[in-house]
Prior knowledge:
Chain A is mainly α. Chain A has two domains: 3-75, no CATH class; 94-342, Orthogonal Bundle (MetI-like fold), CATH 1.10.3720. Chain A has 14 helices and no strands. Chain A has helices spanning 3-31, 36-41, 47-56, 63-75, 89-124, 129-143, 146-160, 184-190, 194-231, 234-241, 246-284, 289-298, 302-330, 332-342. In chain B, helix 6 (161-173) packs parallel to helix 7. Chain B has helices at 49-57, 83-89, 111-119, 129-142, 148-153, 161-173, 191-208, 219-225, 243-248, 253-260, and strands spanning 5-18, 21-34, 38-42, 65-73, 76-77, 94-97, 179-183, 211-216, 228-233, 236-242, 307-311, 314-317. By secondary structure, chain C is mostly helical. Chain C contains eleven helices and no strands. In chain C, helix 4 (81-116) runs parallel beside helix 7 (152-178) and helix 4 (81-116) runs parallel beside helix 11. At the A-C interface, helix 1, helix 6, helix 7, helix 11 and helix 12 of A face helix 5, helix 6, helix 9, helix 10 and helix 11 of C.
Amino acid sequence: MRYSTYLLQRMLLSVVVLLGLSALIFLIARVIPGDPARIALGPLASRTQIASLRTAMHLDEPLYRQYAYYLGGLLNGDFGESLYTRRPASADLRELFPSTLELVVYAGLLMVVVGIPLGILAASYRDTWVDTTVRLISLGGVVTPAFVWAIVLMLIFAYALGVLPVAGRLSPGVVPPPVVTGMITIDALWGGAPSTYFDFLRHLILPAVSLSLAGVAQAARLTRASMVDIAGRPFIEAARAFGISEARIALKYMLKPSLIPTVTILGLDFAALLGNAFLVESVFNWPGMARYGVEVILHKDLNAIVAVVMVMGLFFVVINFLIDILVGYLDPRIRLRQMEDAA
Amino acid sequence: MAREALLDIRDLSVSFTGYRGVSRVLNGVNLTVGRGEKVGLVGETGCGKSLTVRAVLGLLRKPRARVRGEIWFAGRNLVGLSAGELQLIRGREITVVFQDPMAALNPVFTVGEQLRDVIARSPRHQASERETWARAVAILKEVALPDPERILHAYPVQLSGGMRQRVLIAMALVNEPALVIADELGTALDVTIQEQILQVMRSLVDAKGISVLLITHNLGVVRETTDRVYVMYAGSIAETAPTADLFRAPKHPYTQGLLASVPKLTGEGVPRGIDGMIPDYLSPPPGCRFAPRCPFVQPRCQQPPPWVEVGPDHALACVLYDGAPTGLRS
Amino acid sequence: MSTAVAAPAADQLRRTWYAFSRNTGSVVGLAVVVIVVLATALAPWITPFPRHARAFTDFEHASLAPARPHLFGTDTIGRDILTRVVFGFRFSLLLGVVVLSAAVPTGVMLGLVAGYYRGWPETVIMRVTDIFLSIPPLALALAILAVLEPNLQNAMLAVSVMWWPWYTRLVYGLVSSLRNEAYVQAAQIVGASPVHILLREILPNCLPAVLTKMTLDMAFVILIGSSLSFLGLGVQPPDPDLGTMVADGAKYMPDLWWISVFPGLGILVIVLGFNLLGDGLRDVFGVEV
């Protein structure tokens, strides 16, 4: 019952964070010197043009009124017009974000299904060659930027071996599925086009792997470290003293408590994938948010920048909320503390 | 000992290799526990009590710890057994009640979940879920926990220290082992709760005929719980005697010092204490390890002390009693 | 007398070094960091073509594959990649040092104050910290660079703004537990001023964790900085930055692979060095960061 109180509290916190983020971006965008209208219209615009745009953008009104207008817009999903594409920024993002999201979700899956088992393996065979190998792999993952992985993997698999496509989401001859969600996995499989989906998967492998390697490494390290930490706790020695089998100790008594810190930090890493997707997308020419994001930054397109950053923030908050749910499930102490507080 | 020994530790030594060299922590420990007997092992923190427990259970990490000597349990030498064979003994024939009830239960599983895994270890109870559950409820009743069903569904964090300690006793006794090792039983709890815990423990092991090895630094607990005591100092047994004899007439200078360190509730006298500290295991004094702190130290203490029988079941490692008439000190 | 005092400190140092040196990784990390720092300091003298570090063209020797005298090859306008990688380390180190010297004191101070004073300073500082921490790191940097000119100074500013909250949180956590230590309460009882308690009693006990995190963060700051440069939002040409060079070479894949790959390896080496060193310090100090 009280678990819901906990979740409600976390949800409220998410809203506060989003408000804070919006205020921060608003301040960055409005308070920093430079007239947004002038920036938007360029140096050749006339004084009257600028004046009328200032009025349209509410730039002549006090700051708090401006924030209210801006916040009202955000709540309606209205980020204003992109001065770069001359379209509503929300429309641009609706087109571009699904493809980025899809890449990020696959990379996140890899992170969990490869990284955590690697960590368990390393912790179970601590101080053996298995452990050393996993540590070296994860070290490589942590210290190499995603764009370097992207370039190296592309050189090896796309150019030298030629087994995977160089760039893009689908091969030239393949007809994209009708856009429903914008995510090919769903659109193609829903539309009954498995061959399109397989073509997409072939294109996905390199970007998703390059994007996920740092996260895989981080997941393996975290899982290993926290399993080793838990392994030294008295309750593990107690379980061993009761003759519980080593496999059961590792996969039950050690794994669940050690997942708590791992999941918390992996949540942050998962959300950070969205940022790194910028780098990978630009290498593989992936039609996502990244190039748009960089272009609008270079063009000082404030509305579009706000939209991009808010979408990233929203994603971050949603992921963190999911993590809170998961951690609350894994750790009874969190749930019970809420109960005590409520009682 | 007239009774047949269930646990017979012979000349057990454990050493570790570390940064500054080899430390010999256990140095030739001899100890027996008879069937149905309650034996205490007393000593200061750091004297090697808990290490003895780990050695008996085969819980020392092999590459670091070197174990020599013999640990005979029910006719088998545990030192030579494989990890798998030891695992079969742990939780069935030998169990432990752990020191810190706050730390010995896994925080993320319910009591029922953890107790169930222990019951599943029992050779006698290859039982269905329902039977296992019934067994769990029954054992919680035996350790006098109210509302067992609720406790089985609770997480450790929801229970008081005393309740957790009872749960740990239940886990140790549920499979009716031959030997229970109680490591600092109840010393983390309030004195009043501790007393209840000891009573529960005593009545259950007596009823089931389980042998007990009680490891503690608390002399009061030893006095009221055990039949026979070993006093350990710096990795060796200093003295052993029937509990009553030891408290009435302690012989070893260390035992005497230990007993004199306990404040009396009656207010007679002031506790004396022992000067100095337990020696560094990396470079222990040659011969008797207590010599540097001993008020009766003499040149012969540079040699390993002899093991001297001074009475029925009463023996000690000290030159003061070697050939000389007993009662030298009085 | 003085030797009697010095001996324990020297012994302490020897022990720490012993623990540190037993881990191969830590020693490798230290070696890499030392070599990189020396190489950047001596770059004008040890690199084969120091003039290639900035704007320079030599079309006769453009796009050469790795071979003597250009061990890492040359770029499309004939500059020696090896030289530019070594000079590129300068920008990486500069970024790391500037960002941390801006972010760490700020973060540590706020963490000390928030951890020591309960009540509104704690609430305000930690809520703001939470908000900063819940913004995806790159998003914040992008937002800042969006309104400022993309260049090295602004990249440093942007990364600093996103970095201080981590130190606030780290120090806040440490102070919250140190506040209840007996020696802190003893200082309070004898009437020591809060400034004294924070700076002399509490701060020294936070330093191992902060130093360890700084070492590890050198690696991450360099990583983020190179990512920004890669996107064209950091160091601008003709300055040699590793991220910029990777991006530059990516246009000529796969034929001129060396233009990207060697600067990429350069990032890897410097990040690896600080990462291993930080891990080693963490183990030696036994701190959580």
